[in-house]
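--- STAGE predict ---
source: upstream dedup step, 1 unique chain passed
mode: sequence only
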Amino acid sequence: MFVIVNKKNNSIHREPNKKSYANVQYKTASAAKAGITRTLKYYAKAIEDVNNVIAEGKPYYHSRLCNAYEEATNKDLGRTHVNDINNYMVMTVEDYELIEPMVEKTNMMTGKKYHESINTPHYLSASSESYWSA
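--- STAGE serialize ---
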């Protein structure tokens, strides 16, 4: 199995048009590379859609893809790397497990610091309210 890795922070990349966190592994390296292509096309489509909305004289946020446009173009958000092909690499799951970074978080209930995988979904992190309100 293969994963797409975000070179900026070594996290596993999830395609923006996929709904589930479970869909991050690919059977072949070619399938993962196709996932990178789909990601780049998604952001290119968002930029094009916003440009069309602006050409019609409407504010950019009238585009249904304005959030993806913001991610790809707004430098203040610090995520413009998502629209850069050089930001992604394909690795086997086994190789990724050797380099997977851990981040320090604060437990919301106890206030104690702890480490968890950078790929832990927000709702499964003890640092989030959704984890404790179930």
